[in-house]
Each structure stands twice: as structure tokens, then as C-alpha cells.
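Researcher: Let's do a round of design. I'm pasting the C-alpha cells now; please hold your answer until I've finished.
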């Protein structure tokens, strides 16, 4: 959703545009700043990233870790896209996540945390420890 997060994680902002998925919602996660997609009534709006290379996917998969499952979903505008969704463990909140609130209150600190994560990720690769 936020180009600043992508820049911190990938060192670039891939092409992105608005898109939506029907039958899902962005749920808040208790004690976390970021959301998870869960099945739900209505439509969730987000950003479709295109032009991702293998290195980008490795970084995103390592970052998302096992908190999410990567699945292919039909897009409201036609076509399909790979997206990270809840693995269905029930840890999500009944409350919807607010992108506006996140952007206003938490984005700057979150971007710094993403940059720190990327530094640790690159260090682990250089040390031969693999992604963490």
C-alpha cells in the first residue's frame, strides 16, 4: 500500500497501481501495525505491484515469513494476482485495518523498522546464515 515501505524493503518502488479483490477484507492484527487479508464480505482495495523480479520475491517472501500464505486471487478489475493472506489461524481481529490511520500515525517508524529488517536480512545472507 505504501511506496515508502517498498523502497525500504526492495531499494526501489516497483510499478504499482490501484486494484481490488472481492470477498476479502483487511483485518487488523492484535498488537501489530500491519493487516492481514481474510475472507469477508465486500471488497478490499490495495495496490497491484508489477515488474517484480526473483530477488524482489525472495525479499518479500522472507519478510512476510510464515505469518501469511501466498495465494493467487481473482482481481475485481479482471485477471489474477499473487497476494499474501491469512493462513486461517484465527489470529486476526474482527476490526478492519485503517490505511489512513497507519499512514498518519505509524508509517515513518514502520519504514525505519523495514529498513532495519532489510539490513539484518542482507547481513544474514552475507554471513551465510540465510534469511531470518
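Researcher: That's everything. Go ahead.
Model: Designed sequence:
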Amino acid at each position: 500500500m505504501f511506496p515508502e515501505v517498498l523502497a525500504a524493503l526492495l531499494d526501489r518502488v516497483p510499478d504499482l497501481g490501484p486494484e481490488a479483490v472481492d470477498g476479502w477484507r483487511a483485518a487488523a492484527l492484535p498488537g501489530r501495525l500491519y493487516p492481514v487479508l481474510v475472507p469477508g464480505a465486500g471488497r478490499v482495495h490495495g495496490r497491484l505491484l508489477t515488474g517484480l523480479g526473483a530477488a524482489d520475491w525472495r525479499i518479500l517472501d522472507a519478510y512476510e515469513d510464515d505469518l501469511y500464505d501466498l495465494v493467487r486471487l481473482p482481481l475485481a478489475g479482471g485477471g489474477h494476482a499473487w497476494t499474501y493472506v491469512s493462513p486461517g489461524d484465527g489470529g486476526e481481529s474482527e476490526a478492519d485495518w485503517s490505511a489512513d490511520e497507519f499512514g498518519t500515525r505509524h508509517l515513518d517508524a514502520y519504514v525505519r523498522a523495514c529498513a532495519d529488517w532489510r539490513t539484518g536480512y542482507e547481513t544474514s545472507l552475507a554471513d551465510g546464515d540465510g534469511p531470518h
